[in-house]
From TrEMBL:
Matching Pfam families: Neprosin (PF03080)
Signal peptide annotation: 1-20
InterPro entries linked to this entry: Glutamic_endopeptidase (IPR053168), Neprosin (IPR004314)
PROSITE patterns the UniProt entry points to: NEPROSIN_PEP_CD
PANTHER family linked: NEPROSIN DOMAIN-CONTAINING PROTEIN (PTHR31589:SF232), PROTEIN, PUTATIVE (DUF239)-RELATED-RELATED (PTHR31589)
Name of the protein described by the UniProt record: Neprosin PEP catalytic domain-containing protein
Domain of life: Eukaryota
Keywords: Signal
All copies of domain Neprosin PEP catalytic, residue ranges: 93-348
């Protein structure tokens, strides 16, 4: 119960750095909402902009921004686009030696219209040529043509040019071969909110080592587009969406919803980075990486607690841990994950 109170208190404080104080950490430009990068995608030239989501699966959602202090966002009619000068498409690294500590719905059984979870946001120490992330994924399609959207937080020095933890997403329509990218590094994601944007940094530092945020990826029940929704201060914010047209299989819904942590190391010989908070799930207190209220959206657009008897677990190294359990109270389905990483030898990938 005490930990649930902590969760409520933390979710009440804004996770993002106040843009007034950030000294260029979150530099962004405000672009005309109709002239944002997405519209140069060849399949989106005639795309009709959708400004409000239809996501009945997220009840209680108040999408009004009138009660938000929007001094630091963009003026009406424009949207913020992350303008960190370090970002360059050649830094769009989504490869390397990857590790996972995840749970997922069993593939190929059912159609899902999204997933959501509350997650701890941390700032693990990640060096160049490494990344550490925690995500919700929605996926569909055969391995060779996998359609995937993943969103959550990431520390990714090669992508961002710094060590901040940032709201980060990735999409592909062909298993990362020729389509897709992080954030807005290629045309695809349509930004709608005027102040929360992909690439934005979280307010995490030594005094404030953890935040809590809800991340949801939901298919719109009218247009079929896939929305990214974040929750902070009890306010649910549809950040923007991936139009269904940029996908093939995901157009018809997802067959896998996945939750958890992942790390990448882009040079084989480097030590593997920490995942989650850098602590193993067995460690006491709220220092471990975690997800609570793990839920998915079923084919009738109902938001349902994950069924713990049916979820697949993936943990591929002793350098990280994973504990999936049904917690009491409002946390419902929950998991702890993460660990310190280590040498390539110690972190040798376990057989599935
Ligand atoms: C979609 O969801 C809205 C609520 O956001 C609901 O009113 C509407 O009936 C739903 N439409 C369809 C086609 O399911
Ligand atoms: C990341 O943090 C380390 C110290 O932990 C520092 O040495 C390094 O320069 C930082 N990297 C970047 C890209 O800011
Ligand atoms: C979705 O969940 C609701 C509520 O539990 C249930 O009534 C409905 O039958 C489910 N739909 C599907 C397709 O499983």
């Amino acid at each position: 119960m005490a930990s649930y109170l902590l969760l409520v208190i933390l979710i009440h404080s804004s996770p993002f750095l106040s843009q007034a104080k950030q000294n260029g950490i979150d530099s962004f430009k405000c672009v005309n909402i109709y002239q944002q990068p997405a519209f140069s995608h060849r399949k989106l030239r005639h795309h009709k902009l959708q400004t409000k989501p239809n996501i009945p699966q997220f009840p209680g959602a108040t999408f009004s921004r009138s009660d938000v202090n929007n001094d630091h966002g963009c003026p009406k009619g424009t949207v913020p686009i992350h303008a960190n000068p370090s970002i360059h498409p050649q830094n769009d690294i989504n490869s390397g030696v990857k590790y996972f500590a995840t749970i997922s719905t069993p593939p190929g059984e059912k159609t899902y219209r999204g997933g959501a979870a509350i997650m701890g946001v941390f700032n693990p120490v990640v060096k160049q040529m490494q990344s550490s992330r925690a995500n919700v994924w929605v996926q569909n399609g055969p391995t060779s043509d996998l359609n995937s959207i993943e969103a959550g937080w990431a520390v990714h020095p090669n992508l961002y040019g710094d060590n901040y933890t940032r709201l980060t997403a990735y999409w592909t329509a062909d298993d990362f071969r020729t389509t897709g990218c992080y954030n807005l590094l290629c045309p695809g994601f349509v930004q709608i909110d005027t102040s929360v944007f992909l690439g934005q940094a979280y307010l995490i530092n030594l005094d404030h080592p953890m935040m809590i945020e809800q991340i949801g990826i939901f298919q719109d029940n009218v247009t079929g587009n896939w929305w990214l929704v974040t929750q902070m201060n009890y306010l649910i914010i549809p950040v923007g969406y991936w139009p269904k047209k940029i996908f093939t299989y995901l157009t018809l819904g997802a067959d896998v919803v996945k939750y958890g942590g992942t790390t990448s190391t882009y040079l084989q010989q480097l030590d593997r980075p920490p995942m989650g908070s850098g602590k193993y799930p067995g460690d006491l207190g709220w220092v471990f990486g975690f997800f609570t209220r793990i839920r998915y959206v079923n084919d009738s657009y109902n938001l349902i607690d994950a069924d713990h008897r049916k979820m697949n677990k993936v943990l591929d190294s002793v350098c990280y841990g994973l504990m999936y359990f049904t917690a009491g109270g409002a946390m419902k389905e929950a998991m702890k994950f993460g660990g310190p990483g280590g040498t390539p030898d110690r972190c040798k990938q376990l057989p599935p």
